[in-house]
């Protein structure tokens, strides 16, 4: 059984940066709160929690004067306000690519534009972005959603996208909206880390007998990699090597491996050495 790994896989720049910032802080102070799981990878989160990180659901769960880690997904403006009024020490690991979307949304909203976001309305990144235009954005995630929007051609619109969005869907939506609206500004805010990982996964999946995609079940960029690989070859989505079905895997000779942007290197290496040992 041979294993080939995608050219780009695992932690992206933003997650690597966020994880390092949080770890560095934990080295100095073990009484730190994370607003939601640090990343969509429960094994990695566990390591941080073992070092003292406390994961909470809301800012109200954090006692005054403590430290709070804002995740790479970013948060809405009111979370910063609340953190400041509770005198929290903010460790802001928001990915700079997400921060850029907050700034765009804030700037255009203040100039009187209506904001359209392409993405999943329940994803923390989208909830955070929407919080920079007073939660007024129109949020769409499919062509059907776009076609059922109630648009006003006398208004100005600005469109942004979830960083992990598929580029083809973005282009299709831009195409539709540019025909419907006279005054719309498109901001392609898809992150290049996502694009390069998707491209590398696609390239590898045409060369191998099956693909293994490693990543959290709730990680949207991991699920997108799974869908891309599935179009080419049988694909197995796993979180750790324990999820591998050895009987199924034994049918293949050349196995491709890729991993979502929130999968740490040690989990990828673990999976590869396990397959190589079979
Ligand atoms: S996928 Fe892109 S936007 Fe998201 S954290 Fe990574 S680098 Fe930042």
Summarize the structure.
The protein contains eleven helices and twelve strands.
Structure description:
Its cofactor is [4Fe-4S] cluster. InterPro entries: LytB/IspH. Belongs to the IspH family. This is 4-hydroxy-3-methylbut-2-enyl diphosphate reductase. The active site is at 125 (proton donor). The protein is α/β, with parallel strands linked by helices and 278 residues long. It has three domains: 2-10 and 193-277, 4-hydroxy-3-methylbut-2-enyl diphosphate reductase, catalytic domain (Cobalt-precorrin-4 Transmethylase, domain 1, 3-Layer(aba) Sandwich); 13-94, 3-Layer(aba) Sandwich (Rossmann fold); 97-186, Cobalt-precorrin-4 Transmethylase, domain 1 (3-Layer(aba) Sandwich). It contains eleven helices and twelve strands. The strands form three sheets. A four-stranded parallel beta sheet has the order 1-12-10-11, sandwiched between helices. Strands 3-2-4-5 form a four-stranded parallel beta sheet, with helices on both faces. α4 (96-110) packs parallel to α5 (124-130) and α8 (192-205) runs parallel beside α9 (220-230). The longest helix is centred in the first third of the chain and has 16 residues, at 13-28. Iron/sulfur cluster (SF4) binds at residues 12-15, 72, 95, 97-98, 163, 191, 193-194, 261.
How do the helices and strands line up, and which of them pair or pack?
Elements: E1 2-5, H1 13-28, E2 32-35, H2 42-50, E3 53-56, E4 67-70, H3 77-85, E5 89-92, H4 96-110, E6 114-118, H5 124-130, E7 138-140, H6 143-147, E8 157-161, H7 167-180, E9 184-186, H8 192-205, E10 210-214, H9 220-230, E11 235-238, H10 246-249, E12 254-259, H11 265-277
Parallel strand pairs: 1-12, 2-3, 2-4, 4-5, 6-7, 6-8, 8-9, 10-11, 10-12
Function: Catalyzes the conversion of 1-hydroxy-2-methyl-2-(E)-butenyl 4-diphosphate (HMBPP) into a mixture of isopentenyl diphosphate (IPP) and dimethylallyl diphosphate (DMAPP). Acts in the terminal step of the DOXP/MEP pathway for isoprenoid precursor biosynthesis.
Protein name: 4-hydroxy-3-methylbut-2-enyl diphosphate reductase
InterPro entries: LytB/IspH (IPR003451)
């Amino acid at each position: 059984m041979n294993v080939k790994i995608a050219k780009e896989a695992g932690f992206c720049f933003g997650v690597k940066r966020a994880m390092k910032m949080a770890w560095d802080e934990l080295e100095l102070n073990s009484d730190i709160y994370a607003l939601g799981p640090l990343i969509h990878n429960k094994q990695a989160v566990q390591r941080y929690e073992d070092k003292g990180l406390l994961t909470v659901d809301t800012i109200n769960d954090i006692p005054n004067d403590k430290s709070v880690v804002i995740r790479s997904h970013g948060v809405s403006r009111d979370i910063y306000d609340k953190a400041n009024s509770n005198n929290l020490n903010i460790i802001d690991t928001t990915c700079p690519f997400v921060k850029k979307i907050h700034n765009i949304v804030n700037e255009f909203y203040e100039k009187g534009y209506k904001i359209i976001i392409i993405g999943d309305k329940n994803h923390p990144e989208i909830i955070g972005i929407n919080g920079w235009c007073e939660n007024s954005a129109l949020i769409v995630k499919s062509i059907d959603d776009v076609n059922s929007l109630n648009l006003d051609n006398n208004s100005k619109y600005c469109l942004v996208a979830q960083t992990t969005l598929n580029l083809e869907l973005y282009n299709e939506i831009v195409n539709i909206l540019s025909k419907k609206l006279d005054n719309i500004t498109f901001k392609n805010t898809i992150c290049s880390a996502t694009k390069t990982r998707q491209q590398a996964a696609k390239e590898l999946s045409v060369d191998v007998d099956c693909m293994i995609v490693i990543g959290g079940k709730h990680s949207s960029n991991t699920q997108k990699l799974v869908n891309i690989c599935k179009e080419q070859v049988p694909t197995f989505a796993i979180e750790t090597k324990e999820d591998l079905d050895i009987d199924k895997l034994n049918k293949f000779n050349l196995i491709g491996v890729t991993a979502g942007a929130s999968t740490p290197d040690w989990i990828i290496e673990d999976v590869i050495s396990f397959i190589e040992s079979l």
